[in-house]
Amino acid sequence: MIRKMADKHYTIWQNLQWFKIQRRGLADEVKWWLPGILLIQLGVTLISAAIPAVLVRLLGQQTGLPTLTLVMIGIGLGLGCLQFGQTVLDTYMHNATSVVRMEMFTKDGADYLHIPYVAAANAEVRAKRSESMNYGYGGDNSGIEIFYNALVHTALNSILIVVDALILGWASWWITLIIGITTVLAFFPQQSFQQYRRLQQKVIEDSWSPRTYISRSGFREENGKDIRLYHMANWYQGKYEHFVEATDSAQMKIERRQFWISTGSALLTLIRNAVGYGALIVLMVNHQLSISRFTFYFTLLSTVGATVEALLKQYGLLKGANTDTNTGRRFLDWADAVIHDMPKGKAVPSFDRHKPFTVSFDHVTFTYPDGQVPVLKDISLTLKAGERVALVGLNGAGKTTITMLMMGLLTPDKGTITINGVDIQSIPPATLRSYFSPVFQEGTVFAGSVAYNVAMTRDYDAQRVQAALSEVGLTADIAKLAHGIDTKLTNYIQDDGVTLSGGQTQKLMIARALYRNAPILILDEPTAALDALAESDLYQNYQKMAAGKTSLFISHRLASTRFSDRILFLQHGQIAASGTHAQLLAHCPAYAVLYHTQSQYYSEKQTPEEAVQDA
Amino acid sequence: MAVQAALAIVTLLQGYVAVTFLGLLVSQLTRPNVTVNQLWPITAGFLGIIFGLAVLGYWLNMHAQANGWSAWFGMQAMTNKKMLTVTYPTFIDPKFRDNYAAANTSINYSGGFATFITEIVNSVCGLLVAVLLSGASLVALFGARSTQTTTLAQFANSPWLLILMLFIIAIPVVAAFPLAKLSGRFTQKFYQYNIQFNRIGEYYIQKVFEDYSIGKVIRIFDPHDHLVHHFGEMNRTQIKQDNKLLTQATAVRSLNNIVLSVIVGALYVVVGIKGLAGAISIGAVIAYVGYLQQVISALTTMMDTVGTSAATLKGLDQFIDFIEYPDAPATGKLPVEKRLDNEYAIKVDDVSFRYPGAKAWSLRHVTLDFKVGQRLALVGPNGSGKTTLIKLLTRLAEPTEGHILLNGIDIQKYDIHEYQQIFAVVFQDYRLFAFSVADNVAVNTHKDPARMKRALTLAGVWDKVQTLPKQADTSLTKNIDPDGVDISGGEAQKIAIARAWYKDAPFIILDEPTAALDPVSEYEIYQRFDDLMENKTAIYVSHRMSSTRFSQRIVVLDHGEIVEDGTHESLMQAKGLYYRLFEAQAQYYTSDKIKEERKNADATYAIS
């Protein structure tokens, strides 16, 4: 069973503590962000408000030109430097926190590779994970990217408003009061606006991912042929534009709502300014204020509106980012818990890796989490040390599942699997996996050199790479490439990366398994993309490849069974028969039908129609 | 455009009104015996104007934003459309693909045309209005003369003060050019770095860590997480470098702030001289400096726009380059004759083909004609040119030499859309998309349910589709629809075959259609051939030599040349490449027939 992913509602404070743990050692300098920006911003606000006041004072005192020049240019220089520092500090610190978000990609990737394979392949887990990524750490607008930035600026603007209100209180407490009241009032419509905005943003996010899917898959080179020959462009573009329109209309709704909210806050600013300016004018007229102090207070009060607006905006961002961070943490926390609960294995068994291994299934039953019926029902089988076994059966009979169970990628519901008599559950997973050299059905080529793709490490033995390539008959093909085994494959990250053909890829996959040289060799449909001659070569070579190893060969090409010591015929999740080709042909009718179905077309004497009737 | 201009003017006016208000208030308040009652009208009036301008500004901003979004989305849709509609050779051209990536990056980063136009309109309108308003105030400022007789007053009355002020204003303007240029260069450097950074990130995040079947390979072959660690380290170094470049670019751009701030200080001094000399009141000093500040900031915005426009313009160039990317081969205009009798004759006449940039020929001097209704098998080792020949026939590629003729006319002369309508192809790497089964079969907004049913039935997947949650309306995969389902490779292949049949084209081409199927499913497909093909011309490519038994004619390719052409019997007798290919597979089955008879008797029965 796969553990459910729970929605947790962490508070801003809890997420801050979490964030601090995540940034440790990566972006420690970020802790200076708030104090630094606060000092600078206070300086900028106060000096800006003071400039006209100072000028008024100097002119009022009939100060000399040299002093005037010195003071004004000095203040200008100071202010300029502070503003410069503010922009640079904000940019730098914001990007420094991005490191934390980027680190989540690594964590997410590592988690995805460490959770049980059955969970990684589960559609629901994948959907939830992609939601976590989209909202939590996927892009420039995701929760973890914005969270700390918004927190710092919420705190900054709150403190600025308090400081402004206190300074203005010096002139009149009425002003402090009205600032307090209007600021609190401004928060009311903001709450519902943020909710509305999130709703619309969900629409935008929801159409973002299909839109990205459409443009990405439309751009994929391998999709180009079908899209063109079936004239899908209009249909496909229509789907794209449908989602673009949804995004556009949601965005418009936000803009319209934003207008009314802004108008509301302009009204509050009007009230604040009416009371504030009124108070200052009355004080001035009553000679309780000097003209320079009046100018200072007046200018300072004018800036409060912008600060309140900034506070509202940042607080809204913070709330949103907190919710998004929770969504992001949902997968990450879940994965931590799941990985923690996974069996770690006991001791590393002291097997001699140079001798072939024995693999046994004892009454093994397995059901996929979303499947109703078991794929494998009470299966018992043994691959004897050094034996070459062919596994045969229809699509969906459970052949590949058997190999996945063996390698510990899947865990049986019932029964045990042993290697050399040791239960694989007690073997540390990394050790267990190192016992196998599999060739999977799909060819997986990584963006790296040929040598990397064979050795699967950047630290490879060039001679052994060459040997593996030569054994699968790729030496000549690779030699033709611009940099031999150092040639970069795929064009994912490199324009001049080479794309191999289907046949070449399949051979490369076999070379990868050979380089690994593990005691158990698994070949799952290794000939599907090979031509008849290459297929035949592989069969001939199989003897050599499997020498000194235990091996399992899965193929729809029943010819492959001729090179195996024993055939296991899998039907309806059970082993229907086991034996040599001749034995199965004689005693297992289902196998015989399968074989005749395929071999009839090669028969010299019959026409296909006759052969079909025979079968 | 008009909205942007109005917005620019309103924004600027807000600044002027605020400054004028403060100036006026200070002037009034410094008068002796001023009463509160005298000041109410001005205060109320100004507060009203400021409020009105703010609301007007928000309203204009809403429209400007809406225009911006629409333009931005429009650009994305245009890019997507272009990418979908270019011909195949252009589509796979690495240069085109680079252009696509560059156009996307530039749209995402620069904000596209909308931002650019907003910036230009804003800065030009802002500057014009600022110069007009401030120009008027300058005339007033220099018209105000001091009656004092000090040296300072004489200087304040002389034109030298005006010259000094113009000189001061010129400083940030002059400084802005090189600074903006420098900043543009850093910004460009940052973008450039980001393109590759994003590409690497996307590869890992969207591909390596996303596809669980890749994850399976990593789990087994890389149990110690070398790949993840490599990604983590690369990621950390790259984001640090990215931050460095962005901070540099920002720092350079902000340098002008310091210059500007000092200049404002200097302007205060210049206007202050007039004040000290008694030519203008203190309130007027504040107002005048405010006006001048507006001019300077308008000028700086302008300079900044000019400077960064190099980077923005380059981004837009990339977008335009992509939209206008030449797509030469789709030039044919000739309609394809609709023939109910499907009497289409195709002749391949001495065709050779070489992939762009490749040295070796993929096809050399191939001559072949197809008879209507014929079933033709195309056979040959990996890399012998079979798929290439199909690409040429379907105009996914154009012959380097020679011609292909349809009813006697070069196929390049036909309208490509009409021409491709006569082919239905199932490639070995056929593709389905994350929409419904019905969508995938019809690939059109208009669907014919009866035909859909027949297509799925013929392909042998109708029963399976009926078991899906929403039958034919069930989405494939959960990429778009959370209720979508994952289907097996064999089922997907059958849906691809149904799509080909649904298209109802006179030519049907099957390229390795049974590679993923077990012998029984393969047999089923073979059995349905007659229904699938009807009276169509069929071309069949397969490594399963057994499939040639359904073909009246077999063409064998090797190293891009036709080496054999005949029936199964004639080619087996010729003992050439076909014979070797066939025997390579058949030996395991035919020789067996004899042994099988012999061994049957003494076989032991064994079930474990």
Automatic annotation (TrEMBL), chain A:
The lineage of its organism: Bacteria, Bacillati, Bacillota, Bacilli, Lactobacillales. It comes from Schleiferilactobacillus perolens DSM 12744. This is Hlyb family abc transporter. GO terms for molecular function: ABC-type transporter activity; ATP binding; ATP hydrolysis activity; ATPase-coupled lipid transmembrane transporter activity. InterPro entries: AAA+_ATPase (IPR003593), ABC1_TM_dom (IPR011527), ABC1_TM_sf (IPR036640), ABC_transporter-like_ATP-bd (IPR003439), P-loop_NTPase (IPR027417), Type_1_exporter (IPR039421). GO terms for cellular component: plasma membrane. The chain crosses the membrane at residues 32-56, 68-85, 159-188, 259-282. It is a multi-pass membrane protein. It is found in: Cell membrane. SMART domains: AAA (SM00382). Residues 167-320 form the ABC transmembrane type-1 domain. Keywords: ATP-binding, Membrane, Nucleotide-binding, Transmembrane, Transmembrane helix. It comes from the Bacteria. Residues 359-597 form the ABC transporter domain.
UniProtKB/TrEMBL annotation, chain B:
It is a multi-pass membrane protein. This is Multidrug resistance protein 3. The chain crosses the membrane at residues 7-27, 39-60, 120-140, 160-180, 258-291. It is found in: Cell membrane. Keywords: ATP-binding, Membrane, Nucleotide-binding, Transmembrane, Transmembrane helix. Residues 346-584 form the ABC transporter domain. Its main location: membrane. The keyword Protein biosynthesis does not apply. PANTHER family: ATP-BINDING CASSETTE SUB-FAMILY B, ATP-BINDING CASSETTE SUB-FAMILY B MEMBER 6. InterPro entries: AAA+_ATPase, ABC1_TM_dom, ABC1_TM_sf, ABC_transporter-like_ATP-bd, ABC_transporter-like_CS, P-loop_NTPase, Type_1_exporter. Residues 1-311 form the ABC transmembrane type-1 domain. One of its GO terms (cellular component) is plasma membrane. Pfam families: ABC_tran (PF00005). One of its GO terms (molecular function) is ATP binding. The lineage of its organism: Bacteria, Bacillati, Bacillota, Bacilli, Lactobacillales. The keyword Transmembrane helix applies. It comes from Schleiferilactobacillus perolens DSM 12744.
